[in-house]
């Protein structure tokens, strides 16, 4: 049912006549996600490949665009990332789900690899660290966050799952991020964020620490003045976009 729902959503966005909900023309002016898709080629096709989660197509189209002399940065910014923007919008409106977001992220990665240098487009807004709390091995939500945050212009350093405080401190010193993002789905592990925040302060480092996941909420975040709570990836991106330049 979820896959069918996304199929209808994609059909509406790209004007796929095989979808019973699709019209003859792409309704980019009516659907919020459709407005994110570029109108001109080859950017439209690149974006649609990511939206469909078709890694092979995204890679082939990106390689072809490079052969035609298109700047890899333009391929990324005007094509591939626009498709990921549309997927992010559908996810935030519950018209796309975990598998589709991950497939779109793979298609984005395939296109960036084939275009060469296109990954320079990721990270233009700054670097962020991402991890799950020590003792928490859940990574699906973290991976979705990574894909959406990257698509919004940030370079994501994914430290993995069950990350201990010393590893977070070391990564802060190495990568000089604008923020640390922590995910926890287990209330028994979220306390690790408090310990990490305290250690960061003890080391004289000033940096926002943004938490999310089922175990976190606004009440938990109020325990430290540097902790912010993001209820979903869209809220997280808004917090990041509002941070002062570092």
Please characterize this protein's 3D structure.
With 246 residues, this protein is an alpha/beta fold. It has 2 domains: 2-119, Methyltransferase, Methionine Synthase (B12-binding Domains), Chain A, domain 1 (Orthogonal Bundle); 123-242, Rossmann fold, CATH 3.40.50.280. 50% of the residues lie in helices and 11% in strands. The chain contains 10 helices and 5 strands. It has helices at 2-14, 43-52, 55-67, 72-92, 98-115, 140-151, 165-175, 191-202, 218-221, 233-242, and strands at 127-133, 155-163, 179-183, 209-212, 227-229. Strands 2-1-3-4-5 form a 5-stranded parallel sheet, sandwiched between helices. Helix 8 (191-202) links the parallel strand 3 (179-183) and strand 4. Helix 4 packs antiparallel against helix 5 and helix 6 (140-151) packs across helix 10 (233-242). It is elongated. Mean pLDDT is 84; it is low at 1-12 and 14-29.
How far is the first residue's CA from the last residue's CA? 44 Å
> Would you give the CATH topology of the largest domain?
Rossmann fold
| N-to-C series of helices and strands | HHHHHEHEHEHEHEH
Spatial ordering of strands, largest sheet: 2-1-3-4-5
Task: State the CATH class of the largest domain.
Answer: Alpha Beta
Give the CA-based shape. elongated
Q: From the 3D coordinates, which CATH architecture of the largest domain would you assign?
A: 3-Layer(aba) Sandwich
Can you give the mean pLDDT?
A: 84
Instruction: Domain count, please report it.
Output: 2
Q: What is the radius of gyration computed over CA atoms, rounded to a whole number of angstroms?
A: 19 Å
What percent strand? 5-15%
Sketch the major β-sheet.
5 strands, parallel
Overall SS class: alpha/beta
Helix percentage range: 40-55%
Classified in CATH, the superfamily of the largest domain is: Cobalamin-binding domain
Q: Number of helical segments?
A: 10
Number of strands: 5
Low-confidence regions: 1-12, 14-29
